[in-house]
Amino acid sequence: xxxxxxxxIRALLDRAGAPAAVITSPENRRYLSGFTGSAGVLVVGYDxxxxxxxxxxxEQARQEARNFSVVEVQESWVESLAALVTDHGWSVLGYxxxxxxxxxxxxxxxxLGSVRFVPLxxxxxLRLVKTEAEIALIxxxxxxxxxxxxxxxxxxxxxxxxxxxxxxxxxxxxxxGAERTAFPTIVASGPRSALPHGVASDRIIGYxxxxxxxxxxxxxxxxxxxxxxxVTTEPLPWQEEIYNVVLEAxxxxxxxxxxxxxxxxxxxxxxxxIETHGYGAYFGHGTGHGLGLAVHEAPRLGxxxxxxxxxxxxxxxxxxxxxxxxxxxxxxxxxxxxEDGCEVLTRAPKNRLLCVG
Length: 357
Ligand code: ZN
Ligand code: ZN
Fold this sequence. Notes:
Layout: H1 3-16, E1 20-23, H2 26-33, E2 41-45, E3 49-53, H3 58-64, E4 69-72, H4 77-88, E5 92-95, H5 102-111, E6 116-119, H6 132-153, H7 162-175, E7 180-181, E8 186-189, E9 210-215, E10 217-219, E11 222-223, E12 226-232, H8 237-256, H9 263-276, E13 288-290, E14 297-301, E15 314-317, E16 320-323, E17 327-330, E18 333-338, E19 341-344, E20 355-356
Parallel strand pairs: 1-5, 3-4, 5-6, 12-20
Antiparallel strand pairs: 1-2, 2-3, 7-10, 8-9, 9-12, 10-11, 13-14, 15-18, 16-17, 18-19
Bound molecules: zinc ion (ZN) (2 copies).
One zinc ion binds at residues 225, 289, 316, 318, 332.
């Protein structure tokens, strides 16, 4: 991992008046140390940084986290932390208040009674702006889901269970280079497409039905996220109508994205199109979210989000209309914020409601 990231967290420590921080969230652990294992805790001080792992991970941690001293945890990481606190004479520790559970926090206080804990709420924000190397990994995942969508378009959907279609997509992603899927694939057909997060069920896909397909691939730890809505056989007029409104809303939102714009402006652009067409009540979620080591991270593109977009942030743009008991449409692309506009990474076709046999 780049020592530059350690410098940035040390700047946070300065601001919080803490000589060291305990980092427990999996994404921040990986981001700061380069360690890809599924368990471990970072302790970052001014002059030294430690990675606490159990014996399963000692070797891997030494190889991956070059700027960290690896500490093999014997009993519990809190015991190992207590030893470091004594060695360094730390009386204050920063911690991630957004990620530590109440139980973990209480345990820390019990075992480290003399230490004062100060919340560090900005650790996640270190990951907001991506480097081109990070963007390249997201781009790789987006390519994969683009081709997975091509694969779906070439198949027959009616008569098949949503779950089976989702499984085909997941196998396709894995076989073509995804480390894993970013989340369980959504295939929501007919009335179920009105559920914004209807994971694939055993429902059999019928004719003249909207089908929302939402999937993501993880490449090099970075997530992609993708949604297209198709119709089986022939579209009905209401289905085409809501599709075209969502498309217009999505394009309006994308057109606002550039460095310096506050996140709520993007949401408002999509919402205004949907409201103008009379479907405001059927668009219940935010317009998008940040994407990176986590599939949902800052910035949120929501009504009240005042965070200013900066070049290098990566967001999804995914408005939708969901008509209860009838069906829904969502279109989701991945977009990189640039100084003078944005770059849409997703290339799968979207300009009209596509029919799948
Ligand atoms: Zn999304
Ligand atoms: Zn999605």
